[in-house]
Amino acid sequence: MENQNSIITKILKSGVITWILLLLIWSFGALFYTPDFLPNPIVTIEGAKDLVTSGTLFADIIVSLGRVLKGWSLGLLFAIPVGLCVGNFKVISYVFEPFLNFFRFVPAIGFITLFLLWFGVGETSKVALIFYAVIFPVMVNTIAGVRSVDYSLVEAAESMGASKRRTFFTVIVPSAVPNIFTGARLGLSGAIICIVAAEMLAASEGLGYLIYTSRLYYRTDWIFAGIFTLGLIGFLADKLLRFLGAKFLYRFGVR
Predict the structure, then answer these.
(1) How far apart are CA 183 and CA 145, in angstroms?
(2) Looking at residue 116, what is its pLDDT?
(3) What is the rounded CA–CA span in Å between residue 186 and residue 193?
(4) Is the distance from CB of 63 to CB of 126 less than 8 angstroms?
(5) Number of CB atoms found within 10 A of residue 168's CB
(6) First to last CA, the chain
(7) How far is CA 144 from each of CA 137, 153, 176, 234, rounded to the nearest angstrom?
(8) CATH number for the segment(s) 52-252
(9) pLDDT of residue 91
(10) Residue 228 main-chain phi, psi, to 5 deg
């Protein structure tokens, strides 16, 4: 009985049941519509095969991944130091936190036209839009991490003669690492979500471009293929990031 319950638990944890239910609901819903409106899973797989055979899908994946990694990396390089400073230094907090709390509610897609005007139609505008989508979740989580540090640890370090600078780098920053890591994961999610909007900026390749232009050919199956590819990329990227975090940041409390 215990073995049977263990097997059932493993199946539920694997998510297989969820995907089977999704496919059943999708297939059932597709029975009431034409493939141009809602293609069933088989039609979508056939459309994906066409994209793979022509090489379009892999080329678009590489382009989109490159843009996501650039925007995400630049966002981390900017947002983590700023978040640490805002969270730790009151004067900096008074100056920058109002801007943060205002602009984090303005979606990246609202800046599409401005970024086209400011940065042109090349790669810069697309990376800048992803960068904008990344920095706010990273900064908010970094600030929260700094402010949630157990102050008794700070007092203990200072009572042993540690300078404020040493306390900052040896107590505050390490304690904030789990929150920073959570912000990095959320930022990666935001970057992948934003890539569709970013590649509407006069792009000629990428998954967002594929999804956006497939409507011109009434290829809803290609749209579904692009959407599921984005979801799969995000799922695998998050799994990889969590694996790396657990492996290299375990001593900081990242699991």
Answers:
(1) 10
(2) 87
(3) 11
(4) no
(5) 18
(6) 31
(7) 11, 17, 8, 25
(8) 1.10.3720.10
(9) 92
(10) -70, -30
Token pair of 204 as six digits? 């000629």
**Which tokens belong to 95?**
């100056």
> In this structure, what token pair is assigned to residue 61?
């994946």
User: Which of 24, 108, 60 lies closest to 223, judged by CA?
Assistant: 60
Q: Where are the alpha helices (DSSP H) in 112-206?
A: 112-119, 123-147, 151-159, 164-167, 173-198
- Give the pLDDT means over successive 10-residue stretches in the chain (255 positions): 66 78 92 91 94 94 95 97 94 92 91 89 90 96 93 83 87 94 95 87 86 88 94 93 93 87
C-alpha angle 37-43-48 in degrees, rounded to nearest 5: 105
Report residue 120 as tokens.
């042109």
Tokens of 150: 């157990």
Nearest 5 degrees, angle CA 107-CA 113-CA 118?
A: 105
Burial of 227 (0-12, 13-18, 19+ CB in 10 A): middle
Q: Which residues contact 130 (CB under 8 A, 6 or more apart)?
A: 67, 68, 70, 71, 72, 75, 108, 191, 194, 195, 198
pLDDT at 13: 73
What pTM was estimated for this model as a whole? 0.89
Question: Contact at 8 Å (CB) between 86 and 175?
Answer: no
Query: Could you give the CA distance from residue 255 to residue 243 in angstroms, rounded to a whole number?
Result: 9
